[in-house]
Amino acid sequence: MHARTIRLASLAVALLACAGARAERVGEVDTAFKLIGPDHKVVVDVYDDPKVKGVSCYVSRAVTGGVSGALGLAEDKAEAAIACKQVGAVSIAAPLPKQEEVFSERQSILFKRLRVVRMVDAKRHTLVYLTYSDKLVEGSPENAVAAVPLDASVALTVKP
């Protein structure tokens, strides 16, 4: 039994390490009053790129309020906006994949996630961040993109 507990704990730690960045709430504005439950709002969250020190992405999105929102049963809209910026000295410790999901957050109780994918444009020495929301059944064409050009002194290598 003890060995099983250690294996489960190791698995939990590994999963947490793979979970990627966590959102930090920058702010929010109410967009519609709800008599019962929280108001509808637009929130702005910031994510620090876990593999690129000095780059952060700000994502704004609608959050449904009311009773269903309070209970976590509401499905938020698929729309989101993104702005990624250099917020400090940029350093990249290891070669980056050409494309990699760096953030993911649940948006509804059933299958919908907000995702942010980093793409490397090595020719232009630029990191491109795409945000979109997907759904298991329908998918979603709603998306937004931001680009962070890197200084020529920053080593940018792509995994083969």
TrEMBL record:
Q: Which InterPro entries match?
A: Uncharacterised_CreA
Sorted alphabetically, the keyword list is: Signal
This protein's source sits in the domain of life called: Bacteria
Endpoints of the signal sequence: 1-23
From the Swiss-Prot or TrEMBL record, give the protein name: CreA family protein
Give the organism the record lists: Variovorax dokdonensis
